[in-house]
Amino acid sequence: SYIGNVLMEGSSLTAQPHSIIYNNIVPGTMSTGANSIAYNNTVGKSMTVGAGSEAYNNTVGGLTLSGANSYVHDNVVSGDTTISQANIIVSNNQFVGDKTIKFGSANAKNVTFSNNDVNGNIEFTAKAINNNIINNTITTSKDYAINLKTYTDTNVTISDNILTSKDKFGDDAVNHAED
Fold first, then answer.
1. How far apart are CA 8 and CA 28, in angstroms?
2. Sheet of 37-39, strand order
3. What is the pLDDT of residues 157-167, one digit of tens each?
4. What angle do CA 49, 92, 148 make, to 5 degrees?
């Protein structure tokens, strides 16, 4: 377990698998390790959430979801986010700073992205299939709130969101090749 540590400037924390990580102040990056729980941490740079892990009530400078079957909820994220694995649930988070949330790998499938408050945009940089983007508020200064680019046959469900981009609203704030 990693409990109540205050790391020196620039320091990072890499937890072992099956760890409990809470009440830490980490000015650098933090990695949860697989099958871990991380909560009530402040991370200056990006937090990486491992496979089968849960992360909640953290304040982080960015988020990397590189572990399948993880659950990330009730966090505040002020930097870019990358989702690169399957069966991840991302819910009830606050994304600030008009940053990008990337579905950055074809392995980013069967992801549920729901009930988040996003100041930023969602962008698919790979053909990620069978994802659900449901009941979010997404506001950005970029051209699209959700950008599926030219990917087709993705079976991505986008519903019940409030979407606002640079000069578009609602469904018009989604870029999708099949439109």
1. 9
2. 2-3, 20-22, 37-39, 54-56, 71-73, 89-91, 112-114, 132-134, 157-159
3. 999 999 999 99
4. 75
